[in-house]
Structure formats: C-alpha cells, structure tokens
Amino acid sequence: MRKVKYLLSGLLVLGFSLQAVSAERIDPVKATASGVRDFGFELFLSLYSKNPEDPVAISPMSIAEALTLATYGSEKQTKTELEKLFISEALHKEGGDVKMLSYGLGSIRKSLKQYAAESKGIFEYQSANSLWANNNPDVDFKFRASFVKVAEKEFAAESFARDFAATEEVEGEKVQTTVREANQWVSTQTKEKIKELLSKLSDDDVAIILNAVYAKGKFKAHFNQLKEGEYTRDGADKPETVTYMTKTEDMGYFEDKSVKAFSFNVGASNEEEQGPADQIAVDILVPKSGKLSDLAGVLSGSYYDKVVSGLKSENVELTLPAGKVEQQEAAKLKDSLKAEPFKLSRAFDEKNAQFKPLGSVAGDLNLYINDILTKTFYEVTPFGFEAAAATAVVFSRESAVIPRQPLQAKVNSASLHVVRHIPSGLPLFVVEYDSPKRYTEEELIDLVELGAKNRRSLSAQVKDGTLRVGYDDKTNTDVLGVYDEDYKLVRKIKTIER
Prior knowledge:
The protein has helices spanning 28-49, 60-71, 76-83, 89-93, 98-118, 145-155, 177-189, 292-296, 301-309, 334-338, 441-453, and strands spanning 11-15, 123-134, 142-143, 158-162, 167-170, 173-176, 205-218, 225-231, 240-255, 259-266, 280-287, 312-321, 323-326, 331-332, 359-360, 367-380, 384-397, 415-421, 426-433, 460-462, 465-472, 477-483, 489-496. With 498 residues, the chain is α+β, with helices and mostly antiparallel strands. It folds into two domains: 7-397, Antithrombin, subunit I, domain 2 (Antithrombin, Chain I, domain 2, 2-Layer Sandwich), CATH 3.30.497.10; 415-498, no CATH class. Strand 5 and strand 6 (173-176) form a beta hairpin. Helix 1 crosses helix 5 (98-118), helix 2 packs antiparallel against helix 3 (76-83) and helix 2 packs across helix 5 (98-118). The protein is elongated.
C-alpha cells in the first residue's frame, strides 16, 4: 500500500505564472521558465508512478541549475539530449540552447535574490553551486579551465579538489571524507534542512556538480485559526488526528471537472510596512475525487498553466492541514530520465557519453553520469512556508580494462585430442596424443619463415637467442635471424621477401 505524505491535500507548486514562448521571437527567460516547468511536472509524474515510500517532492529549479551546468561540460549528441530536457524540439531548432538556459536561469535567480533583498524579511532566497574533483592519484580528475570559467561566471560555482577515497572516523564509524564535506556544504547552503544528500561514492566516481536552493516566505494573510480534526492519508485505511489551519482572504480560485485550485501570495500584511510588489505565490491543486492519482492523469505543464491563467479572485475561507515533507532518501533520477518522455540515454552510457569539455582523468578514460540525486524539504506553518532542495550530478569514469592474466597450463604428459564437428557435435577424430617430437634448427627456420610470409608472427628460442623476423632500417628489409633481449641482431640467417 502506498504510504506517502501529500502536503495540503494535493500538489503544491512554488513559482511564477508562465506564458508560452512566441514562435516569432525567443524570450530566453520565458522559454527557460516554460521548459523547466514542463520538465518539472513530467519528472514529478514519473517519480510518483514508481510508488516510492518517501513523499514525492522536487525542485525543478535546483535540478535545472545542476543539469544546465553539466550541459556545459558535454558535447555533440550528449549535449543535445541534455538541452532537450528543458527545450522543446521546435525551440531547439530555432536556436534554443544551453546558453539560453543559463541566461534564463540566471535572470530568474537574480530576480529572486533581488526580491529577497528588497522584501524586508518577507522572503528569503539563496542558491549556490559547487564543483568537486577527485584528485586521488589513481583518478587524477581535473576540470577543464574553460568549464570552470563558465561555472564561476554563470553559476558562481565554488571549486573543491578532494581525494574521494579518503576516509575518517566520525562517531565511531568510518565515513568518506568527501561525502561528509559535500553534505556539510549542502547543509550550510540549505540552512540545515538537507543534512545528507550523498551516502557514498564509488571508486570510479570522478566529479560532482552540486546545487542547493533555499526559500522562506511569509504569507500575506496568515492562517489565524487552528483546530484539530481527522485526516486520511492517500492510501491509508484509517484517519489520524492532525492540526488544521484556517484563514479567510481574497485569493485566486479555479475549478474544473478535475480540480479545485487556490492561490495566495507571499507578501507584507496590512500591519507590516509594504515592500516590493508580490512575486511569490503558493498554488494548491486539490483533486475533486480526493485521490492524487486522479490529478496525475491530467497533470502537465500546460495543464498547470491553464489553471494559473484561469485563476479568478474570490473571497475564500480556506482550511488546510499543517504539514512538513522530509524525505529520508535522495531520489535517484537516472531510471526516470532514461525513460519516456526524457530519453536521456547517452549521458549515462559508460562508453558513449561525451563529456570531454568537463575534464579529464588518468588514462584518458571516458566520462559519464553515474546518477543524479535530489532531495527536498518543505514545511507550511500558519505564518508561511520554508523549503530547501539539493541536487548532485555524479560523474564516473568508464571501467578500466584490466588485462587478464593467462591461465598457466603446460601439457607434459599424454592427452586425448578430439577433432569435433561443431554443428552436430560428431567427433571426426579421436587421438591419443603421446608422441612428442623435437624440431631441428633448420625446421624452426622454415616454420618462422613460413609464418612471416603468411602474416603469422612466430618466434623460437635457440641456443644463442630468439629466432624471429626483424626489420633492418638500413636496408629497409625484413631479416630472419637470431636476436638478443634488446632486439639487436646477433646472427643473420636470411632476408625475407614478402
């Protein structure tokens, strides 16, 4: 049975009202917002369909920041696949690319931070990015200077070089130092709301791109009445007692056959000093059937846009359960992103991913995305909301091909040889093999010469060295002779005509 804590009896989305991209002219901010919106709802539905134990909650903004930065480290087909996560086929043909995405995300990020700075404490927002390189001597990963330059300029990313194999003792347990430090970085950037994103790193992990976002907002009109009541979780058999919050205000309202939607803003109350115009809304979509799975059947980015566009002002007395979403485990996105509708396959392909612009490792092994991890926190109180999310793009190197040591086997006694017809399994010859012979030097010379003429290299040990065919640079000819351990000619026998 599905045990999921669904907040506010439906799906809650923080964001902006988004408009479709004009076919005549690309507005990079609107195009980026629209693409990330569509991606976000598609990913939500993909994760929801997998029936996880943890509540389904994501930050499309955090994931988009991390993956757009990763896109700058890609090329060719891999780059195209990554770009199309957030850019439609039609828009991609019109010129939409990773530069458009980074400009759009940067503009939205700047707008959020500016609003936070001017809101006099009504709204808080911070976003941070970092790069982690595995400098273990066996791996020796280095981000390319051109990639670091973009990461610093477009994403204000910090860079760290660490030995991913290093461990330390923490409270009696051995932990990977880089995992602890990266999680500490995430915890600091999310004001300790996400304390553990990574659990471990493998021997072949070479780099991590981290993003963390944090937001906190005060409702323009707070919930001023609290009262206990019964609430039945989605999929649960019995109701439980929870705290309900009630407020009455003029808010956005939308209704169709599938949902009732309510929308209210973060902003200064009448009693507080007015700040800048409202920029953050909380939209609540409540399925009429009481089942979120029914909403999932119609949910999409375009449907959400329809809801937002259809909001009308109504005086509403709204009662909601207080709630907090805390995911115990980071969601792994690889399986979802490899499937429809994303079809991101090449980036995860050990042999065929194309991430040379990202950096290089010892042995010049190929780089690929091992997985993408994300984790989200969300809480609603009578006075406002608090949210945080973190995303990690973990890169690995292809498995090094380790030469197999041959099995040492010497047959120095009688054996049985069978010549078999493979299709039928019929033994054509069965022979007791117990009649060894010894080649003379003349026979060895004939065999080595025959091998050379038929492009089958052969050598034989003789009393004064190794009998083989070598190349004479002075005469530009092949010479059959005896050579020493340094491949110097000891005794010339003949020149070989090819």
